[in-house]
């Protein structure tokens, strides 16, 4: 009975981590995008802030996901890796449901990715000069 419980618990933990990883990819990884596409991508991917409002800022890694996976294959913890990114910032005068964003591309920006059990779960704040 204890073995079954442990297996169930491990399965649930794996499911939670998988959901966190899928959420990470949905919010932060995109193969390619242009700066002016922020509003469209944020809306299409349903990326919102707390309480369903406009998210103030979101960073997209311009990557297929392979480098992200390889980064997390190095082990748990936070890893700093250089990525080309598009940072989308909410236009202050916009509000939900008509969120507007301005985007800015930054090449080879150091991005702190938090990995847990071999998958990405959080993108820490990206320092933009």
Task: Give me some keywords for this one.
129 residues; alpha+beta; P-30 Protein; 5-stranded mixed beta sheet; 3 helices; disordered N terminus
Walkthrough of the structure:
- The structure is a single chain.
- Helix content is 32%, strand content 33%.
- The protein contains 3 helices and 5 strands; from the N terminus they run αβαβαβββ.
- It is globular, with a radius of gyration of 17 Å.
- 20% of the residues are buried.
- The N terminus is likely disordered.
- The chain is an alpha+beta fold.
- The chain has a single domain, classed as Ribonuclease A-like domain (P-30 Protein, Roll), CATH 3.10.130.
- Strands 1-2-3-4-5 form a 5-stranded mixed beta sheet.
How are the strands ordered across the major sheet?
1-2-3-4-5
Q: Number of folding domains?
A: 1
Order of helices and strands: HEHEHEEE
Structural class: alpha+beta
Counting DSSP E segments of at least 2 residues, the number of strands comes to 5
End-to-end CA span: 56 Å
- Name of the level-1 CATH class: Alpha Beta
CATH fold topology: P-30 Protein
Known CATH architecture: Roll
Q: What is the CATH superfamily classification?
A: Ribonuclease A-like domain
Percent range for β-strand residues? 25-35%
Q: Helix coverage percent of residues?
A: 25-40%
Total of helices:
3
Organism: Oreochromis niloticus (Nile tilapia)
Domain Ribonuclease A-domain: 17-127
Signal peptide: 1-21
GO molecular function, one term: hydrolase activity
């Amino acid at each position: 009975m204890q073995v079954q419980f442990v297996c169930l618990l491990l399965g649930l933990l794996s499911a939670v981590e998988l959901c966190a990883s899928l959420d990470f990819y949905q919010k932060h990884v995109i193969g390619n995008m242009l700066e002016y596409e922020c509003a469209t991508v944020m809306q299409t991917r349903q990326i919102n802030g707390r309480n369903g409002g406009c998210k103030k800022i979101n960073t997209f890694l311009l990557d297929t996901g392979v480098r992200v996976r390889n980064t997390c294959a190095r082990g748990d913890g936070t890893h700093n890796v250089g990525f080309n990114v598009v940072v989308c910032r909410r236009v202050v005068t916009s509000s939900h449901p008509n969120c507007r964003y301005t985007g800015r591309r930054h090449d080879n920006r150091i991005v702190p990715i938090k990995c847990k059990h071999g998958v990405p779960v959080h993108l820490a704040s990206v320092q933009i000069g």
